[in-house]
């Protein structure tokens, strides 16, 4: 009788260095392809101003209402009615007495809609009201 002696095989090893390399390549790919620039969904043609000031990075973000040239109100990219805007503004002003209201209106937005926003801000006792503009072209 002939007995075969089986050699013990070692367990297969996983090469961690190669897996780390693949992980780093995936991470670099994701970082390069991801955009970090904040882009607004609404394309508004806002008016120019030579006296515009840039807001600081440490300021608390304002409550932004956008008005397009058709007179439609937008809160955070969502179309709302005037009554919805008014109730949301009053609720936010009650939570934060130092709330800043920012109006982001197109150049051809109906002036009456902007005045209604201003009146609602006065009703909510908001003391700080700003309007977004773009920097005037330099000749």
Summarize the structure.
This protein is α/β, with parallel strands linked by helices. It contains three helices and seven strands, in the order H-E-E-E-E-H-E-H-E-E. It has a domain at 48-135: Nucleotidyltransferase, domain 5 (2-Layer Sandwich), CATH 3.30.420.
Characterization of this structure:
- The chain has helices spanning 16-33, 82-95, 111-123, and strands spanning 48-49, 63-67, 73-75, 78-80, 100-105, 128-131, 134-135.
- The longest helix is centred in the first third of the chain and has 18 residues, at 16-33.
- Strand 5, helix 3 (111-123) and strand 6 (128-131) form a beta-alpha-beta unit.
- The radius of gyration is 29 Å and the shape is elongated.
- It has 139 residues and is an alpha/beta fold.
- The chain is built from three helices and seven strands; from the N terminus they run αββββαβαββ.
- The mean pLDDT is 80.
- The chain starts with 15 loop residues before the first helix and ends with a strand.
- The chain has a domain at 48-135: Nucleotidyltransferase, domain 5, CATH 3.30.420.
- It is 32% helix and 18% strand.
- The strands form two sheets. It has a five-stranded mixed sheet with strand order 4-3-2-5-6, with helices on one face.
């Amino acid at each position: 009788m002939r007995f075969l002696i089986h050699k013990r095989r070692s367990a297969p090893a996983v090469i961690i260095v190669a897996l780390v390399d693949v992980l780093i390549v995936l991470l670099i790919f994701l970082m390069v392809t991801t955009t970090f620039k904040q882009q607004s969904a609404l394309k508004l043609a806002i008016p120019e101003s030579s006296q515009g000031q840039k807001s600081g990075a440490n300021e608390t973000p304002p409550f932004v209402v956008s008005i397009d040239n058709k007179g439609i109100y937008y809160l955070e990219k969502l179309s709302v009615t005037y009554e919805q805007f008014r109730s949301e503004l009053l609720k936010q002003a009650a939570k934060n007495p130092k709330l800043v209201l920012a109006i982001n209106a197109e150049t051809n937005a109906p002036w009456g809609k902007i005045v209604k926003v201003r009146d609602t801000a006065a009703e909510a006792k908001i003391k700080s009201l700003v309007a977004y503009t773009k920097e005037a072209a330099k000749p």
